[in-house]
Amino acid sequence: MDSFVAVGLCFGALLILIAIRMPISIALVSVSFFGIAFEKSWSAAVGSLSRLPFEMAANWEFSAAPMFLFMGFICAATGLTNGLFKASSILLSRLPGSLAAASVFASALFAAASGSSVATAAAMSRIAIPEMLKRGYDQGLACGTVAASGTLGSLIPPSILLILYGIYANVSIGKLFLAGVVPGVISAAIYILMISIRCKINPKLSGESVKIVSFEVNKWEIAKTILPLPIIIVLVMGSIFFGIATPTEAGAIGSTGAVALAALQGRLSYTAFCGALIQTAESFASIFFIIIGGALLTRFIAITGITPQLLALFEQFNAGPLILICATALVYILLGMFIDSIGLLLLTVPIFLPLANALEMNLIWYGVILIKLLEIGLITPPIGLNIFVIKSTLGPQVKLPVIFRGICWFIFMDLLTLILLVAVPALCLWLPNLLR
């Protein structure tokens, strides 16, 4: 069978299975398994499926993921992140729309601890949105801020998506982490700037005026509340940047630091510790099944031989890196409306990564672009996952159309950030280039 037809049927079947709510891990494994069986043989498919779990489990780099998952869960379970929003609102109290700006700042710090966009959105939607609505903030602005800020967990390290991309692209995870820092900070800064300008022009968006709090009076309270997370971030990123530890070892350092800080503050309990361990095991088990499906799909695509044909097509039309980025953006934004970020990454990387490699693109820069596109997918209607996380948290208090209306401004800001990252690759590559 022609490779384009085979891959097209495979992806069509995958989208149908995902649309009928089949878990993406099972959909990936099923379609890839039968695809290999059809292209090669039944024994080849059985052999691939039987070997892959052991090959993936034996990959040392995957151990970074549970380390960082545990670090995030222990921070949340012991309350190390509880005061982030309050402290951020004090720090940013002079800005128009200060509570919304504080939500972005707090989400960025929370994302640096959790590495998960969904976890960030879920946590902040319980803390920040009720407070903003109580102060009279526009519902769309309040919900849109938290939904968009939650996506920072995909880009600001440590990020599970960056770990998975690094393994599949065979590039340094440490360099990927460093590459995500500046784009993550830029994304947060652009959100805050947009919020402040909008609230300055239209003060009704931010409801009641917020009383300005003296920094001198509250600086110790702010430091005590925020300090644990910067310490953990410095431990993790500093150990990677100075070559002291690998990403997996840095994850272990961060987890140990989180446990130690929670114990020093008297917040560590047996229940919280065991609960974080259980959540880590459950989350990584779910991710691991998707990883196996993604690896099996990669083998199926390699068997079809579609990559050389796509390269020939690119050469025929004299298409360069910019055309590939535009094609990637189109696919990610469209599929991101319906498929979760990990599934979408593993679904598309086998197609796009060989093309990027053949076009001699910097794979670290390309990886950051991919993750930024996945962030946009998390908030793109009609399915944007972060939007439904917030909706499920708030219940009937806020209608979905209101959240969709509020998120549009942030999607435009994300597209602006994406254009900056494409136009100026140094924004992504400056920091990792310093790593020896």
Give the secondary structure arrangement, pairings included.
Blueprint: H1 3-19, H2 24-39, H3 42-57, H4 64-77, H5 84-91, H6 98-114, H7 117-134, H8 139-150, H9 152-155, H10 160-169, H11 173-201, H12 215-226, H13 228-241, H14 247-264, H15 270-304, H16 306-316, H17 321-335, H18 341-358, H19 363-378, H20 385-394, H21 400-423, H22 426-433
Helix pairs in contact: 1-2, 2-3, 2-15, 3-15, 4-6, 4-14, 4-15, 5-6, 5-12, 6-7, 6-8, 6-11, 6-13, 7-8, 7-20, 8-20, 8-21, 10-11, 10-18, 10-19, 11-19, 11-21, 11-22, 13-14, 15-18, 16-18, 17-18, 17-19, 18-19, 19-21
Please characterize this protein's 3D structure.
The N and C termini lie far apart (47 Å). The radius of gyration is 22 Å and the shape is globular. The chain is mainly α and 436 residues long. Helix 17 packs antiparallel against helix 18. The chain has 22 helices and no strands. Mean pLDDT is 83; it is low at 209-217. The protein has one domain (65-290, 307-433).
- How is the biggest beta sheet arranged? none
Kindly report the average pLDDT value. Answer: 83
Number of strands: 0
Tally of discrete structural domains = 1
What ranges have pLDDT less than 50 throughout 5 or more consecutive residues? 209-217
